Amino acid sequence: MTIPKLRLFALAWLLLRVLAFAQDYPLPENTPAASRADLKIHHVDTLNVHDPAIMPDPVSKTYYVYANYSPTRSYETLKSPNNRAGVKAWWSKDLINWHGPKLVYEVGKNFWADKTDAPWAPEVHFFKGKYYLFVTFNDWDLIIDDNPERPKINKRASQILVGDSPLGPFKPFDNRPHTPEGEMTLDGTFWYEDGQPWLIYCHEWVQLGNGLIKAIRLSDDLSHTIGDPITLIDAGDVNWVKRTINYRGTPTPGIVTDGPWLYRSKTGKLMMMWSSWSKDRAYTTSLAYSDNDKITGNWTHRKEPILQDDVGHGNIFRTFEGDLRISIHRYFKQPNTRMQIYPVVDTGNDLKVGPLLHGHP
């Protein structure tokens, strides 16, 4: 498959995700930060970060957020050394004024995934003195499964890279994904429980019908996985989700799972924030709860989402002052996507989300 065809395949997939659940909302008219890489400071209202996960770095006392990068995007003004895709970072001391962007990872020449199409959902975790970049890659040329009623099931997988700084450079442990071979996966994230690190990830609806959220054990240095994955959530068990995708003009059975993020409340209750499309409120975010407060517990679901109307795939973090926040994106279509930050109250048994605090409404 030629490079132009690969780009068309990737673009078609992204358009499917937008159009399959499209609803009309007013889009931002300000200039996205990605189009002004020349500026030294960017207001949070302009940060077009899709799938944000703000990391408060305990070493530098600075907030970092990561975004995918492709040199083929017309609105992108950052340049990569070798004209290849990668991950860029923004950083801030106050969550309002952001510096960057800076390329923290560029896909290697002989890497297994696509070289110009942007990787997905980058997030960084600080663990035992190292910084770990969790990110999803695609090889659009390699078809791993087939279902004529769904989009092409290409190789899509989550991988962990490592660096000594929140600004990288990040390097892969190996030239292969962390998630299991043969699974079409995305949105890997990190959880540490009882001395055991875990990789949490989504198994795509495209391959399964009902998307899953799974977990697999990691080695102490996060370089590889151990054993087989376990299933935490089956999207088919959830009442608020949209159960069909418009593929080639025909409603096709399928339920999306996106963006898992685990959080332990002040009373020890284990929760998971995750996203999908709802029946009538577009891209949506809700919570699930473990019945024994362990990752291996049985997970039940909140009846109503906590954020909706094209708001999804984010993370939960604390400011350096101790305040609880959610960072998340609104508007699914780039470059209109904008990062938003909401205040959160931990009640012990649940999370209550307040009105928008920072970011374009």
Descriptive notes:
- With 361 residues, the protein is mainly β.
- It has one domain: 5 Propeller (Tachylectin-2, Chain A).
- Helices cover 6% and strands 45% of the residues.
- The chain contains two helices and 24 strands.
- It has a five-stranded antiparallel beta sheet with strand order 1-5-4-3-2, with no helix packed on it.
- Strand 18 (283-290) and strand 19 (299-301) form a beta hairpin.
- The longest helix has 17 residues, at 3-19.
- The model has no long low-confidence stretch (mean pLDDT 94).
Chart the SSEs and their pairings:
Blueprint: H1 3-19, E1 42-43, E2 55-57, E3 62-69, E4 86-92, E5 97-106, E6 120-127, E7 130-145, E8 153-163, E9 171-172, E10 185-193, E11 196-203, H2 205-208, E12 212-218, E13 225-234, E14 244-247, E15 250-253, E16 258-264, E17 270-277, E18 283-290, E19 299-301, E20 311-318, E21 324-330, E22 338-346, E23 351-353, E24 358-359
Antiparallel strand pairs: 1-5, 2-3, 3-4, 4-5, 6-7, 7-8, 8-9, 10-11, 11-12, 12-13, 14-15, 16-17, 17-18, 18-19, 20-21, 21-22, 22-23, 22-24
Q: Could you state the oligomeric state of the chains shown?
A: single chain
Which strand order spans the largest sheet, edge to edge or round the barrel? 1-5-4-3-2
| CATH topology type | Tachylectin-2, Chain A
Mean pLDDT equals 94
General form: globular
H/E order of the elements? HEEEEEEEEEEEHEEEEEEEEEEEEE
DSSP helix fraction: under 10%
**Radius of gyration, CA atoms, in whole angstroms:** 19 Å
Give a count of the beta strands, DSSP E runs of length 2 or more. 24
Summed up, the domain count is: 1
| Strand residue percentage | over 45%
> CATH superfamily, please?
Glycosyl hydrolase domain, family 43
Class from secondary-structure proportions: mainly beta
Q: Largest sheet, if any?
A: 5 strands, antiparallel
Q: Point out poorly predicted stretches.
A: none
Give the class-level CATH name. Mainly Beta
CATH architectural designation: 5 Propeller
The helix tally amounts to: 2
